[in-house]
What does this fold into?
Amino acid sequence: MKQGRLFIISAPSGAGKTSLISHVTDMRSDIKVSISHTTRLPRPKEKDGVDYFFIQKNEFDEMICKDEFIEHAIIYDHKYGTSRKSVKKITDAGLHVILEIDWQGAAQVRKQFSSTTSIFILPPSMQDLEDRLKKRAQDDDKTISRRLTFAKNEIKHCIDFDYFIINQDFDISVRELLSIIDSEKNKISNLNYSDVLTKLLN
Ligand code: 5GP
It folds into this structure.
């Protein structure tokens, strides 16, 4: 059975990462997003088991103790983590998995899996990022200013990633993301000898 590939996608809050990813996964049945666990409270319209698995701090800590996370990090005072089970379920089905995680998590995943591809989504400008955060109307002014400071720190880490996308035009960004995913999946090192070559050459 073909194993799916692991893609990490990071971006500062408001760069449009979630919309981009959900558009790509709607278009492509071979790409799924791993649902993370978090200790933060759900925002309006967010659903448990769909956007995140919303859990209590003690449950999160128990999962850390049981080594159930591939990676975990503290972001904006809340804990976030990717469970091994979520990722395995997707890759075992032969599908590609996207981890929508921050740079700290990305660094942990890269250390464990040599064949990951990491993509960083950049906003066209800080003003654009601020406008998007305000338009989203999910946070108060204090939180927005905190997110902007945090964004600058996050952006500094984009040099550790394999690819970047500047999310100015949504359709172009979707195309760029799909082209990165497809180029990686079609690398000769991913060619499954028994599946493809044996049939072709016998
Ligand atoms: P939000 O609370 O706005 O949904 O997400 C805040 C940040 O947490 C985003 O940068 C998002 O990518 C990151 N994040 C979400 N899930 C995970 C995870 O499982 N692990 C890590 N390291 N970061 C995550």
The beta strands are 6-10, 31-33, 37-38, 53-54, 69-75, 78-83, 96-100, 117-122, 163-166. The longest helix spans residues 141-156. The pocket of guanosine-5'-monophosphate is lined by residues 13, 36, 40, 71, 73, 75, 80-82, 100-102, 104-105 (CB under 6 Å).
